[in-house]
Design brief:
The protein has 465 residues and is of the alpha+beta class. 52% of the residues lie in helices and 7% in strands. Helix 7 packs antiparallel against helix 8, helix 7 runs parallel beside helix 10 and helix 20 packs antiparallel against helix 21. The N and C termini lie far apart (44 Å).
């Protein structure tokens, strides 16, 4: 277990940003518990495969073209989707966007944040740039996850109502991970977070238009966080109290911020170990209800055609994010439709990557079931959120039955997690989805990631085609 620095600088007293920075600079691979190291390897594989799955999406093609025209055409770092080379900044930019396309990247419940999609593209680019080892990458990832999750918890539920936390807290997560990899001291770590925080952005309005902004949030969080750390290394200063200051992030982006979350149980509680994998290929807010509906239909042997209506009992965050999507018109938007996701569960028995297609958007059976679904705020579920994402559905059948089903933890949560075999299978499906890597290549990547802690160098995961 890590211990916090005993002798604090005078300006650290009562300033949680500084206290957090002092902790982050102390994180060493040797101090991480074995389950945390193992989870880091698992989350890295999950992120890597999610990145490959983003290949060929129009958003990523545009970002690749931007990187090609604006950045160098060679370098030490990999643009995974095209097997190209570029600078750390542009690799983080493209890989960060790509890993968030198919909605299969990880999520931390109480932080309400996708940490992997912003931390790993930044720390991998920096590790490849500096020739860092697998152990150094894991320690950097731990610092990034700790920061992003704690900042997300600090900003609170009011923040998430308007802001996509992965785009805001995610910038600081990426900055902290890269700053740790660059071995910045607490002072420069604090400047890195200050610069990242002043650039933090990401608004939910895009959901109403089916716009591409969600991938921009993660690509910019990864790249800007990396930038913040690199310029802090060279002496660029940032706000010292970017989180809790009078004109900092909490002041402008939250009305329920809680500074204690920034430093509570540092060194004994690890965000990496608390992070969930995504099972269904949709917004995580749909997963609890999806699991509950799947359990109900299997247990009671009910078919989609026998259902008259479905009520998904949800927390307020689900209403805020999913509520605007009433008539999904794109693949990505359909993943943010509770009705459409539950229709996939009812009709197909799953909501997997291959189930969300242009054809499925127009499938009459899916559309008919979509129209039977409504969401309702459930006070019990809302009180448990965001620490727990509980699921409950009520189904009315055509023969007059009312059936209720609850689940305590969605598939993929730490207490209902995916095994390494399941993660390997998921990774192979993700890579095959886009054709970004052959099965043989992906099995070699999987084997290398399982021994990540022993890798002396983390360059060259995929050869040029």
């Amino acid at each position: 277990m890590l211990t916090k620095t005993k002798a604090k600088l005078p300006d650290a007293v009562g300033q949680p940003t500084r206290e957090l920075c002092e902790f982050l600079t102390q994180i060493r691979y040797e101090d991480l518990p074995e389950p945390v190291v193992a989870r880091a390897e698992e989350l890295f594989l999950d992120w890597f495969a999610s990145t490959l799955a983003g290949k060929n999406s129009h958003q990523i093609i545009i970002l690749e073209n931007f990187a090609r025209s604006m950045g160098p055409s060679s370098g030490k770092c990999e643009v995974l989707t095209v097997r190209g080379r570029s600078s750390p900044f542009f690799c983080a930019l493209v890989n960060g966007g790509a890993s968030h396309v198919v909605e299969q990247d990880d999520l931390h419940n109480s932080g309400v944040l996708h940490p992997g999609t912003v931390v790993f593209p930044a720390v991998l680019a920096a590790a490849q740039d500096t020739g860092a080892s697998g152990k150094e990458l894991i320690a950097a990832a731990a610092a990034g996850y700790e920061t992003g999750v704690r900042v997300g918890e600090f900003l609170g539920r009011s923040h998430y109502k308007v802001f996509h936390t992965t785009g805001t807290a995610g910038k600081l997560a990426a900055a902290a991970g890269v700053a740790r990899l660059l071995r910045l001291d607490a002072e420069r770590m604090q400047h890195a977070l200050g610069s990242a925080g002043t650039m933090a952005a990401g608004l939910w309005e895009f959901l109403r238009d089916a716009a591409d902004s969600k991938q921009l949030h993660t690509s910019k969080a990864a790249a800007d966080g990396l930038m913040a750390a690199y310029i802090a290394r060279d002496g660029f200063t940032g706000a010292r109290r970017i989180l809790e200051g009078a004109q900092g992030m909490a002041a402008g982006m939250s009305n329920d911020a809680e500074p204690a979350h920034l430093t509570d149980s540092v060194g004994s509680r690890w965000a990496l170990a608390e992070t969930s994998f995504k099972f269904h290929a949709s917004c995580r807010h749909t997963h609890p209800a999806a699991d509950a509906l799947l359990a109900l239909m299997q247990h009671h042997h009910i078919k989609a055609e026998e259902v008259a209506s479905v009520t998904a009992h949800v927390h307020q965050g689900a209403l805020d994010v999913l509520g605007p999507v009433t008539d999904p018109q794109s693949i990505h938007q359909s993943k943010f439709s509770m009705g459409f996701v539950l229709a996939q569960i009812a009709v197909n028995g799953r909501a997997g990557l291959a189930d969300f297609t242009e054809q499925s958007l127009r499938e009459p059976r899916l559309r008919a079931f979509h129209n039977k679904v409504k969401m309702a705020l459930d006070p019990e579920i809302d009180r448990a959120y965001p620490k727990r994402w509980m699921g409950r559905v009520t189904v009315k059948t055509l023969d007059g039955r009312d059936i209720d089903q609850r689940i305590g933890s969605p598939k993929g949560d730490p207490d209902n997690t995916l095994s390494r075999t399941e993660l390997e299978d998921k990774s192979l499906r993700l890579a095959a989805h886009s054709g970004a890597a052959t099965e043989t290549e992906m099995k070699e990547v999987i084997a290398r990631i399982w021994r990540l802690r022993g890798e002396r160098d983390v360059r060259d995961f995929l050869g040029a085609r």
